[in-house]
């Protein structure tokens, strides 16, 4: 039973995840609608964040400002930053429930991927990944997906039919192809995409950020000083999350990024001709490094709200 739970795939709209996390916090502990515009590390023991023009002193700063993190660039000026992965993704949540046989499905074609995750209310999140140049955009994104995937196997047409055009999001996929040498600097911890932005081929971007948060909180509760806690956080999270990032990159190379007909035929020996044949590939083995013995938890958190 424990092994089954560890392998479960749970689809959660990000808006619902945010509501659940906020409900567990005291109302006064969260400030929204404001922007942190600066970080002062002149006093190593008391970092200060500039917010609305006023400094806010802290014992610890957690930088979770995403793949294009300004704080990461300031703390590691020699790092090249995010790089385009070679793929773009269009995705949405269906407007109404769709009849699905399984909670998750992934299909590969030549240079493309289509996947979907079921929600508890019957709706589903779908994503279409295409190997293409960066910056390509469509005046009708949903129409572009229908032209590319509309004749694929069920339930792909039904998912697209249940989607409103205005709900489709389109983003180029960037990653930290060059790993960071550390997830901490002084009393600042990088977390999530700011620390280890990865390709979405294993559905682990948000999941690894959640693991970051849990490990960081546990380290702060157990260690005598913030410095000791941050050293433990870096030692536990950096090897594991960077291993997951490497595995995600490998999965993409063997999945939707394959375009050579011979390579695709080797990958899909059962049906090398039919486009859109459903594939349910087993993900690469992702045993956790010894520094962090917990299993990989796959909780797919998707961006579209509602």
Automatic annotation (TrEMBL):
Cofactor: FAD
Region described as Disordered: spans on this chain: 265-291
Source species: Streptomyces shaanxiensis
UniProt keyword Oxidoreductase, yes or no: yes
Top-level taxon in the UniProt lineage: Bacteria
Domain FAD-binding: from-to ranges: 182-247
PANTHER family in UniProt: PTHR46496, ZEAXANTHIN EPOXIDASE, CHLOROPLASTIC
Keyword Hydrolase attributed: no
Gene3D superfamilies in UniProt: FAD/NAD(P)-binding domain
Keywords recorded for this protein, A-Z: FAD, Flavoprotein, Oxidoreductase
Protein name: FAD-binding domain-containing protein
One Pfam family per UniProt: FAD_binding_3
């Amino acid at each position: 039973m424990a092994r089954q739970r560890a392998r479960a795939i749970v689809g959660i709209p990000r808006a619902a995840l945010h509501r659940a996390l906020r409900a567990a916090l005291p109302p006064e502990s969260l400030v929204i609608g404001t922007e942190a515009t600066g970080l002062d590390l002149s006093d190593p023991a008391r970092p200060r964040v500039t917010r609305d023009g006023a400094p806010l002193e802290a014992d610890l700063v957690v930088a979770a400002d995403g793949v294009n993190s300004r704080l990461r660039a300031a703390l590691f000026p020699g790092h090249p930053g995010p790089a385009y992965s070679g793929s773009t993704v269009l995705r949405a949540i269906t407007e109404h429930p769709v009849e699905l046989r399984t909670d998750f499905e992934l299909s590969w074609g030549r240079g493309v991927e289509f996947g979907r995750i079921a929600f508890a209310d019957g709706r589903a999140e779908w994503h279409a990944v295409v190997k293409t140049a960066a910056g390509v955009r469509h005046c009708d994104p949903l129409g572009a997906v229908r032209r590319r995937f509309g004749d694929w196997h069920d339930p792909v047409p039904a998912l697209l039919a249940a989607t409103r055009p205005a709900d489709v999001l389109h983003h180029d996929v960037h990653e930290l192809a060059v790993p960071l040498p550390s997830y901490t600097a002084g009393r600042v911890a990088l977390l999530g995409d700011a620390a280890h932005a990865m390709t979405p081929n294993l559905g682990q971007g948000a999941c690894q950020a959640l693991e970051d948060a849990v490990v960081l909180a546990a380290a702060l509760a157990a260690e005598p000083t913030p410095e000791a806690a941050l050293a433990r956080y870096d030692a536990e999270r950096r090897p594991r999350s960077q291993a997951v990032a490497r595995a995600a990159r490998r999965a993409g190379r063997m999945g939707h990024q394959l375009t050579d007909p011979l390579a695709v035929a080797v990958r899909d020996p059962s049906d090398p001709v039919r486009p859109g044949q459903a594939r349910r590939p087993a993900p690469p083995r992702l045993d956790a490094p010894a520094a962090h013995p917990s299993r990989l938890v796959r909780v797919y958190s998707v961006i579209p709200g509602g």
